[in-house]
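Workshop exercise sheet. Pairs work together: one partner reads the sequence aloud, the other fills in the structure field after running the prediction. Swap roles for the next sheet.
Pair: D.N. / O.F.
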Amino acid sequence: MILLPAVDIKGGKCVRLLRGDYSTAEQVTDDAVKTTEAFRKAGAGWIHIVDLDGAKAGKPVNSGIIFEMIKKSGLKAEVGGGIRTRETMEFYLKNGVSRVVIGTAAVRNPRFVSEAVKMYGREHIAVGIDARDGFAAENGWTETSSESYLRLAEKMEYAGAGYIVFTDIGRDGTLGGPNFQMIGSIAEKSGCNIIASGGISNIEDIKRLISMDIYGAVCGKAIYSGGVDLRSALALCGRGGGNA
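Structure field:
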């Protein structure tokens, strides 16, 4: 399993949210660039970055610091938040981002995902499915659609997506453990590589995801709070810990 340390950027700062609520934003490190460099030294190969301001604005807002993080750390990065046009995808992929995560645009227009896959290749495109009470959220998690997360996953497989980053918003930032039932359901329904996000609190959660044969997992707050030792977790995950 691939383990991706998470960095959420708001106002140029590295923060974490509770259940996707922007008003709960709490700065977790003093320097996002140095944090990503530390992740690399611990053995990470990938990092998961979300431009929180961009997710609300519908366009990149914190791209400058994101590019600096990638360049100085040397990590492969998947980046989400405000990626809703071909121009934005191209902007990120031409500036060192390895994989873009399409969220709101996928909910509103599955054809956009299909066109993106054809243009840039499956390895560079992921779909972010963020579920609130079983339905896909959009617009920076501020709105909830009428689309079931499982139905959306099926549509994304049909569109040719290679990766789905799945988050149960109710678990995100809580350290209460992932929603293993929902993760198992989406893995069963979709032929995509599933990257589980939200709720990881300790090494036992990571072991359980490995036992479920999930492709990858995003871990943020547990690393910052000390609940998960990144170096140990990467060693447990195998495949070099963070290399895909």
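Discussion prompt: The longest strand covers residues 2-10. What would you look at next?
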